[in-house]
């Protein structure tokens, strides 16, 4: 045929070569512009993008390098252009007829078909044998290539193989793309015989820690694109890659995989500077996860000096340090910059605001400090800004320009504060606004409603207040997360708008929202999660007519919802999780109402006023949903629901705090079909465990809580694999069996406290090698403490044996790997000295050894335990002067974290050293930990996995047991010792103290006025010392002081006046003869006889006999008149009546004379009183010694001070 002419074939081949050559030259000229456009386009991808793809091969090599051949009869672009240009000549040749043009067009099309067909014939023989052989050899090196590379078959054209691209002019392989095929095994060296490769992509495979150093990359001198990311390669990056001078894109990123621990690349020798020194053509450098370990100057200088035209720089997680060097300012062509997950410890440089081409900036989790330069927010091309998880990054958000292109603003986990600026509404392109866990406050601006492109909104864990603005225009919104703020008011009605058809998640938990919950929320067509727990919703939950089929999680717990549960709630057919716990729902609820919710797996109705019943009809048991979690705590249950026997998927069951009596049924251990791992039957009325116990050798039970019941008899031996076992607060009376430890193979928490257990602790308990908490407190256990508990255990964190009868001493050789954080041995009979090896417990936070018989000096060596917060040594026989107290010259200890320090009721003596108080830093300075407790976290499962320490102290004059030791509570008790000297003034610096007790000592001197600085003080006891002087007026400013005892000292002067002091009774000041100024004590300024005056009067020997004779005569005469009247009843009544009238006439004129200076002796046990008719009150006339013992309620005149004087004299 005519098109097989050899000359024509040569001509067509020459034309094809010329076209390919021109296209290559054209594309090479436009390469940089094309790459900029492509990078700009791809930089506007969504926030979820995690990596940058390499430039496509077509941009490097042009149309001559195609991924696969065009169809057989496809017209080449060059020919199309040629035909078009020729057809466009017709206007210049009007003489040509239309039919001629048509024939010319047909001829040209025929030539195109001939050219395409001849090119296909030529291409059929493009694959070179040596390159086909190299590829097959490469395939054979893979261990799973048969299905991944099925097209790679011997005898076929390798240019047609999947992932292979050839040069149509030379037939050589120019591009190899095997990415994302999960290839494993080895990488054959034959790959490097393909020396014409310009693009090599082996990303996302599993080459199992193959070392790149083993391969001669320098042979691939034409490579422009090299992508070996996340393929399992490890070790040092070879220097040969640094010789590939034509490289435009280099991606060696790696992700750490647990199954491939050595799959991390590194740049140590040679380093980054050496590798990229000759790569001046690089536009993209992606080394995420490569261990570079370079400081700020080194890596910044290397990148800026060697690759000035860089457009993409991604160095995520490369162990880089800072600060960022100014040399980076030279990379003015940057489109994407990613430096997150490094340790830069640097501020954001101002020069980033000059990168006008910057599209993506990601610098999360890299230790940024300072504030965000405002210039960054003014970059017009910036679409993604992510500086999240930098807690030292502070400042406020600036004004946002109206022409901003921001699509993703991610600032969560920073310390940015202040309000959101109203200009946030200018970010019209914004689709992601993630500001959670910051310090923002104020109102959410109403302009946020202008963000019509918004899809993800997260403002959780901030301080936003006020009402939620309307959301009517958010047609693209998918997530609204406003949890843990201070938002108030109702949920906006616009949230239930039908236009929010894409909304899948609403999370507004932990706010102060109120009002009713809109019924329209349950009808949102795409909503999957409705989380409104921990608010103040108090209305009845309304019925709704339309139930969203996609809604799978509804959590309305911890509100004040009331009334009955709406019936429409049972129409949510897609519901999987329903929590209505901790509300005020009431009424009787039959549990079979939930049987139509076929997908329900998690149901929580706890802590309401519901009466839950499972009915007497068992026909529905089999159709009830397969529940995995059922919580019916405080639901007024009177029996364990019988339908549970048919539940074979249940894993969590909480029936606590009900009224279930009798025996725990035997069948309960067999439900769940091996999935049952949590059972809480605490706070019920169970008396026994139904036996015999089943075979639980294969039980999956992890948490078993039976505390606070009435269980009695021997300790039940139940599941073998239990992690948490709580039998506390029951009536078990047996001893702990030696075999008990075989049931503790995996136990972490064991509590048998508050029972009546007897006998000794079996040594076999030490075989529970995973045990972290052992609480055997408040029993009748005896014997000695097993040495293995403290000498061998390296896991035990809490040892609580208080309230038993243990004797002997504390084990001597405590392990150097001691992990104990709490040791409570209070109220036992332990003796001897404290073992110095206690200092090995460097994690110790609570040490309570009170109420024992220890005999030792103060253990100053415990001061090196930097975590110690509670030290109780009271009621022992510790002795000696405080020379070993913290801060003294003889002591190196500090006790800097100590917040409860109780040394009361011992035999310490001597002066209180000032430095002792200076070192108690935790009593001076508050931490930023907030309101926490001193306890022990033994599992990360739930709040119930936190062990609360218990400490008993003297506060406000009585023994007080702290069931939770708050970190804000500080107490210092040195009472009942033999301390002398004065109270150091420095004690006033302990301004965070809540309780200070130095009573029952021999302290002298004045009360330091510096005590008025202790602004948190609630209880102050300085009684039974020898303190003198006046009470400092500064004490009256202690507004929290609710208990004060200054009794039985030598204090004088007026008692200070203040709101708190007016509440204290006489007992707070009694025993101080020189005090005055309250309604119970003498008034200040009254005349009193001094001791010298009384002594002088009594010692006088001058006798006036004339006065004596006159007095005797008057007395005798009166006796003759008065005595008969006193004996004769009628006369006695006359006497009393007239004497009362006479005194009443005299008293108003002489109130002070009668009440203050005159005392009338009496033999009657009653104090004479008079009643004032118009007030009905009784005032004393004669105060006598007998009045103090009188049973009558005497109301003294306000000016009468004789009672106080009598009290002083008594």
Automatic annotation (TrEMBL):
<keyword id="KW-0433">Leucine-rich repeat</keyword>
<keyword id="KW-1003">Cell membrane</keyword>
<dbReference type="InterPro" id="IPR001611">
    <property type="entry name" value="Leu-rich_rpt"/>
</dbReference>
<protein>
    <submittedName>
        <fullName>LRR receptor-like serine threonine-protein kinase</fullName>
    </submittedName>
</protein>
<keyword id="KW-0418">Kinase</keyword>
<dbReference type="InterPro" id="IPR032675">
    <property type="entry name" value="LRR_dom_sf"/>
</dbReference>
<keyword id="KW-0472">Membrane</keyword>
<dbReference type="InterPro" id="IPR003591">
    <property type="entry name" value="Leu-rich_rpt_typical-subtyp"/>
</dbReference>
<dbReference type="GO" id="GO:0016301">
    <property type="term" value="F:kinase activity"/>
</dbReference>
<feature type="compositionally biased region" description="Basic and acidic residues">
    <location>
        <begin position="33"/>
        <end position="51"/>
    </location>
</feature>
<keyword id="KW-0677">Repeat</keyword>
<dbReference type="Pfam" id="PF13855">
    <property type="entry name" value="LRR_8"/>
</dbReference>
<feature type="region of interest" description="Disordered">
    <location>
        <begin position="30"/>
        <end position="51"/>
    </location>
</feature>
<keyword id="KW-1133">Transmembrane helix</keyword>
<dbReference type="InterPro" id="IPR013210">
    <property type="entry name" value="LRR_N_plant-typ"/>
</dbReference>
<dbReference type="Pfam" id="PF08263">
    <property type="entry name" value="LRRNT_2"/>
</dbReference>
<keyword id="KW-0808">Transferase</keyword>
<dbReference type="InterPro" id="IPR052595">
    <property type="entry name" value="LRRC69/RLP"/>
</dbReference>
<dbReference type="GO" id="GO:0005886">
    <property type="term" value="C:plasma membrane"/>
</dbReference>
<feature type="transmembrane region" description="Helical">
    <location>
        <begin position="1103"/>
        <end position="1128"/>
    </location>
</feature>
<feature type="domain" description="Leucine-rich repeat-containing N-terminal plant-type">
    <location>
        <begin position="129"/>
        <end position="167"/>
    </location>
</feature>
<dbReference type="Pfam" id="PF00560">
    <property type="entry name" value="LRR_1"/>
</dbReference>
<keyword id="KW-0675">Receptor</keyword>
<comment type="similarity">
    <text>Belongs to the RLP family.</text>
</comment>
<keyword id="KW-0812">Transmembrane</keyword>
